[in-house]
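Support request, please re-run this one:
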Amino acid sequence: MDAADALNEIAFWLERSAAPTFKVQAFRKAAGVISGLTPDDVAERTRDGRLKRTKGIGDTTFGVIRQAVDGDVPDYLEKLRQSGAKPLAAGGDGLRPLLRGDLHSHSDWSDGGSPPELMADAARHLGREYLALTDHSPNLKIANGLTAERLSEQLDVVAGLNGDAGFRLLSGIEVDILESGELDQTPEMLDRLDVVVASVHSKLRSDRRTMTERMLGGISDPHTNVLGHCTGRLLQGSRGTRPESEFDAERVFAACAEGNVAVEINSRPERQDPPDNLMQLALEAGCLFSIDSDAHAPGQLDFLQYGAERAERNGVPAERIITTWPLDRLLEWLNSRN
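Re-run finished. Output below.
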């Protein structure tokens, strides 16, 4: 098999299992090193030992390349494929096959680890019909949020990646809801996007009234399509834990239902946001939902399994989940908001 493909697939499976970043990067980096070489060059440099002495190629990645060059599926990859055949989540079997797309993902343009083309390739591999690229907005400097100028440049990249009739990479943004309730991007740029996910990322311990008004401001903006990870909680992971934000959930979800804004079911294992009790409130309020991965790497796109499990367990009907909709229906709904 192609050696670069083998390395990238290993990275995919490691990302899917939430392996340490340094381990994933070793395989992504090695794939990048050999991606500019022809298969014959890779084979020749592997067999004469030059590749093993190349910066960015370690003992493990060289072993993978050598087996691929010899025409074998690398042992490392075969082991990961076998473990990856098992579902990530114990439930959600009825809903998971109905998911057509994902409206929240990040690339290396902000705080993701891979370029948009790898994110799109992984989404296709998983059978998705569409994926929204939603990198962060300028206020989130720690995540390298996109200025209007950089976002405009990214739109050209997204357009250039759309040629497959069976798949669509949607332009988008995860835009901060600022303390004022305004969205952290110019209206002119937001007008140009397919999808706007609005989220709160700062001052998450604000009092209930302040947070409620802030969220209502973001929801009321006609550009907003999805309310992202509404409580901001963290249950586990390298960033530690964080309690839920306090806000008037009944008012917030009523505004979402009235304004035709979907409530995100964030599938990241460390978020599981909203909590079950709030998902029930949103369901009772008549909200639509968007099951999203919030992926920051290609393998994390399969986190949708976790969101499907939680949605199914909470009795969320498939017809109220916009990521089960075909692309034409989804685009019509997205355009009706603004």
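Strands lie at 101-102, 130-133, 168-176, 195-199, 226-227, 262-266, 289-292. The chain has two domains: 3-84, 96-337.
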